[in-house]
Amino acid sequence: MKRKIHPSRLVVLAFLGVVAIGTALLSMPFVVADGKPTSFSDALFTATSAVTVTGLATLDTQTHWNVYGHWVIALLIQIGGFGIVGFATLLGYLIDGRVSVHNRLSATTEASAAGGVDVKRLILSIVKMTLFFELLLFVFLFVRFMVEYDYSLTKSLGHGAFHAISAFNNAGFALYSDSLMSFARDGWIIVPIFVGAFMGSLGFPVLSEAWDRIKHKTRLLFGRNVGFMPMQWSLNSRIILWSSLVLVVLGTVYVGLLEWNNPKTLGPLDPLNKLLDSIFAAIMPRTAGFNAQDITAMHPSTWLGMDLLMFIGGGSASTAGGIKIGTAVVLAYIVFTEIRGETAVNIGNRRLPRSIQRQALTIVGLTATLAAVAILILRWTTQYSLDKIIFDVLSAVCTVGLSTGVTMDMPDWSEVMFSILMFVGRVGPVSMATALALRKIKRHFEYPRERPLIG
């Protein structure tokens, strides 16, 4: 009798396979600008960063790789991003067929009601939505590169497509040595990039629910006969949309206040571009990892605020990193409930099951522990300052892609360690959530109850 592979192991093996293929391809001389093979550690780091849609780099993406290398990286980003969203979304339905990730997904309503999932239609919906947003972003960038920067047709197509894929999948790879710093005064580049990254960070369930509602209202407007549509958004969508808005506003204010007069960052810009770059700097730590300002020139206090944004991350079933907004919100409500002395954790008009609470606590604990261990190792073995180490480690574990310059100067063994951090940081929470959600062991006895001292 064949033994079935647990879903948490399957996703790890799948990602390992793609990383291995990517490492092999990026080690080849034909993808490198000077025609020389890339070292194993650098190829592994780049492939892992692309597949986990992180964006950290030990090599200059613009100068080290040729056009073939750029397309290999773009392909790895696309595969990694789709795999993350597809698996996490499908998992949300398979864990409990009675409760969808959001309440009314048109492609799977009937299937969910019947206790199953139309996998083909679900995956197809994810593909369509991904390509739609990437195409929309590509058009904006392609036109801008052609008209304003006088790029050739081929270069405009390549740069537009690469950055559209990288932005929507929250990868943070750019075809410029300074990331997007040369476009800090160009809102026609900055705005589409951070809007595309923000949309990608919301996750497929939220985007799909929003799209369903848009279609429903459009049909009502034109007098078409439409079916039932719930008046209230799903709890998942409400958490992600409201929390994302709050984090963008608070992050923008925080970065803007600290960097407004910094002569090395926002200082030389006019007020409008200062505002746009502040929004950009508030969105990127939670998602993509592009930078329009020099991260190394920012105040250490700004890094601290960005550390928090990186740790929280974006929405579940998205390509954004971190512990995810839903996890952070659940954790906050657990604390709030305990302070108030209530017995059940309620968000809005919904009660959270205890299994979700335990999963949130486990994910936060494991992510924090992984980051802490890596920080200690680097502090013991390198000469980097603690604030830089914390920033870059969180960027790797939370698959963000921003750096204070640590990753460019790391020894080979550190590159391998960071590759592990990125892989575990991306695949670990998903596989852990799967294992926790699907593993239900019934005990036929209970131990005597006793309360240790707390606090």
Description:
- The chain is mainly α.
- The protein is built from 16 helices and two strands.
- It has a two-stranded antiparallel ribbon with strand order 1-2.
- Helix 6 packs across helix 7, helix 12 runs parallel beside helix 15 and helix 14 runs antiparallel to helix 16.
Residue windows where pLDDT falls under 50 for at least 5 positions: 96-116
SS field, number of helical segments: 16
Q: In what range is the share of β-strand residues? A: under 5%
Average pLDDT = 85
The run of helices and strands is HHHHHHHHHHHHHEEHHH
Helicity, in percent?
55-70%
Basic shape: globular
Strand order of the largest sheet: 1-2
Q: Report the structural category.
A: mainly alpha
Largest sheet, strands/sense/barrel: 2 strands, antiparallel
How is the topology of this model organized?
Elements: H1 7-27, H2 40-51, H3 61-64, H4 67-95, H5 109-113, H6 119-147, H7 153-168, H8 187-202, H9 204-221, H10 235-259, H11 271-283, H12 300-312, H13 325-340, E1 346-347, E2 350-351, H14 354-381, H15 386-397, H16 412-438
Antiparallel strand pairs: 1-2
Helix pairs in contact: 1-2, 1-4, 1-16, 2-4, 2-16, 4-6, 4-16, 6-7, 6-8, 7-8, 8-11, 10-11, 10-12, 12-15, 13-14, 14-15, 14-16
